[in-house]
Amino acid sequence: MTRRKNGRNLTVPAVRAVYQEYFVRSHSVGGHHTASYSVGGHHTASYSVGGHHTACYSVGGFHTACYSDGGHHTACYSDGGQTACYSDVGSPHCQTACYSVGGHHTACYSDGGQTACYIVGGHHTACYSDGGQTACYSDGGQTACYSVGGHHTACYSDGGQTACYSVGGHHTACYSDGGHHTACYPCWSSPHCMLQCWRSPCCSGTLQKR
Fold this sequence. Notes:
Distance between the termini: 92 Å
Number of helices: 2
Oligomer: single chain
């Protein structure tokens, strides 16, 4: 199929190129494209600020960077999953940054949910905001965990805890690899760990004397 422009016959690819040139040049900032499509009909850079894309799709239909502020993505998908995602506008579980290749999170939710999350394999690298975990899991276990208020402040290494719970009857520092304590509970809670806690700098300020 051909079309004519300025007396010339244009093939379909040429028509597409002319249209894309028009499309890129004619859509300005304000919810429209600033740059458009790559090979395959996918975006390479797209929409402006205002709830639209700032940069978008890579070849294959996956995002490389996406939406602007306003409840939309700030950056989005890599091939196979998201690399960074949502803004903190709108839903309390709106994502601020999201998925790694394979559909797992690299960083996640805003207040009310996760602030940073999963690595490939379904384990957390950092997790929840207020009300939950602030940093979480490594491959096979937690490396840092919960926030203050009965939650972990730092937690598990592969196979055991390296530092654990916050004040309030919980651990101040906990387990070494293999599930054994190196520094333990608040010293009034565990005679077994009292000497280690007494000697541990992480118990300073929380030590209860007999």
